């Protein structure tokens, strides 16, 4: 028998489904390796927080911002106000309620007497 034209061996082509299966297998192995590394290796120093509120290395500023946002979200304004991180500070220095018209108090629960609210605002 003579070799095929083109000089030697013919290149084998893999079916498209087999290539997709191979890629899926590689991705699965990579994700499993990342999962094992996440569970068995010590936490990254980038996520450590020094606890003093000062900006340390890495992502401590993001953790501090997340804590501030959670503290603001936990403030209850009785449905008659809003809390902003850069807004009014309460008596304890934490973010306080900015009350809607006709409401007052630390949690906006006190209705102002003889107040006419503008319903169009």
Automatic annotation (TrEMBL):
InterPro entries: Alliinase_N_sf, EGF_alliinase
UniProtKB keywords: Membrane, Transmembrane, Transmembrane helix
Keyword Membrane: yes
Residue ranges of every copy of the Alliinase EGF-like domain listed in the record: 60-115
Gene3D superfamilies: EGF-like, alliinase
Molecular function terms, GO-annotated: carbon-sulfur lyase activity
Domain of life: Eukaryota
Segments crossing the lipid bilayer: 16-37
Protein name listed in UniProt: Alliinase EGF-like domain-containing protein
Lineage, broadest ranks: Eukaryota, Viridiplantae, Streptophyta, Embryophyta, Tracheophyta
